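Posting this for the archive.
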Amino acid sequence: MNLRGDVHELAPEVIGAELYVDGVGGRIVEVEAYDHEDPAAHGYGNRRTPRNASMFLAGGHAYVYRSYGIHWCLNFVTGAEGEANALLIRALEPLEGLDTMRARRGLDDVRLLASGPGRLCQALGITKEHDGLPLDEPPFDLRPRRAAVDVVVGPRIGITKAVERPWRYGLAGSRFLSRAFRAP
């Protein structure tokens, strides 16, 4: 799956794709776009730090960071090398490895296994060790979507800057979203 290009064009294309980490995963149902001109992005103004260095790799790599010092979050880097653009993977529909996800998350409700970026990383076993790895090589297995899907768009969640930008994308009607999209 090609992840090199404009983050805003790639975001809706990632919806419906499938992500597996060591055989555990499912269908991506929600992402948020962040680009280097976005004040809510870690790479705003193309400022590189030790924390966000992977965001400056060429598209097709993982950028994994700790949110609030608690949860790991997975991003797909999409920009040209040296330009910080990424898609935060917010939620997926579990398809394979449900027993492993349930054990990692300590719960049975399939809807809550990977609905939210922290839950998703815990369910898939993603940690800082995955930061900077290519998404087209093991332990990752990223598969393009099999058919066209309906994508809904809305404002991003859990940020304080540029909140009005409609850069959150989701699979219409999915019960695995981290939060429902507001009606237009």
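Strands lie at 18-21, 24-34, 62-67, 71-77, 86-96, 140-143, 151-154, 168-171. The first strand starts at residue 18 and ends at 21.
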